[in-house]
């Protein structure tokens, strides 16, 4: 699959009859929906877009031009990862990703909401470090402590249970990116393997989940993209190999 990001002036690819997700390869919110699609083993197409030079047609699927957006029928789409992922879980109920207990579903939503301050701190540290305050570092670590405590209280391998669920796929894309912060010189954001032993065990387990392995990126790659974005020239196509031509060498004439 080509990971080239389409931009202003590029034509909308023809609809292929499958679910189609509009995304940006390095967007954690788009990754949430990719993980759910993968976990559900659904067939889908992905269209990556350049968020700085957006193709005109993205507004037909997402009013604000944000990603992800899911085209579930030709010309009909949903936007916002939370809306998309609940829709996918309800539309395709095999292997449900939400808890059957309404109280646990509510607790999962509250956990995601409380974790948001750590996400906000990450964005500041990664893309606006001059605005970073000590309170943000504290909020970041409170988020990590929150997850570790929740894992301990639940006593399960994943937040959802013995297998990952929607709550895990919602939080994971940020944990994946958190590991890039020390590589960017933000040592205060390191996830200490001793202090956060249970959380690290959870993260290691998430990296082995098929839905994550099929799409996740290493910290070094997130570092490189973050640096490019912080410089003002985000390298959206750094992973695209579609233009590389692999030809067998010609045999020499005898």
From TrEMBL:
Keyword list, A-Z: Oxidoreductase
Coiled coil: none
Molecular function GO labels: glutathione dehydrogenase (ascorbate) activity; glutathione transferase activity
Boundaries of every GST C-terminal domain copy: 101-225
Domain called GST N-terminal: residue spans: 17-96
Domain of life from the UniProt record: Eukaryota
GO biological process, one term: glutathione metabolic process
SUPFAM superfamilies assigned: GST C-terminal domain-like, Thioredoxin-like
Any single Gene Ontology cellular-component annotation: cytoplasm
Family: Belongs to the GST superfamily. Omega family.
Record protein name field: Pyrimidodiazepine synthase
């Amino acid at each position: 699959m080509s990971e080239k990001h389409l931009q202003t002036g590029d034509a909308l690819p023809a609809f292929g009859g499958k679910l189609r997700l509009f995304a940006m390869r390095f967007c954690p919110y788009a990754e949430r929906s990719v993980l759910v699609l993968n976990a559900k083993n659904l067939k889908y197409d992905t269209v990556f877009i350049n968020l700085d030079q957006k193709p005109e047609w993205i507004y037909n699927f997402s009013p604000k031009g944000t990603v992800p957006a899911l085209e579930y029928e030709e010309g009909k789409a949903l936007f916002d990862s939370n809306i998309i992922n609940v829709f996918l879980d309800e539309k395709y109920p095999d292997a449900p990703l939400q808890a059957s207990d309404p109280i646990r579903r509510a607790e999962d939503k509250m956990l995601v909401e409380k974790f948001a301050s750590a996400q906000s701190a990450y964005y500041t540290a990664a893309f606006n470090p001059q605005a970073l305050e000590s309170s943000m570092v504290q909020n970041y670590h409170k988020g990590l402590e929150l997850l570790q405590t929740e894992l301990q209280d639940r006593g399960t391998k994943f937040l959802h249970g013995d297998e990952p669920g929607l709550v895990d796929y919602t939080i994971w894309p940020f944990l994946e990116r958190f590991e890039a912060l020390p590589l960017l010189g933000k040592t205060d954001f390191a996830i200490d393997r001793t202090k956060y032993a249970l959380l690290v065990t959870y993260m290691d387990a998430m990296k082995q989940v098929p839905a994550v392995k099929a799409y996740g990126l290493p910290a070094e790659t997130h570092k490189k993209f973050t640096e490019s974005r912080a410089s003002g020239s985000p390298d959206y196509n750094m992973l695209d190999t579609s233009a590389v031509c692999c030809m067998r060498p010609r045999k020499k004439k005898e």
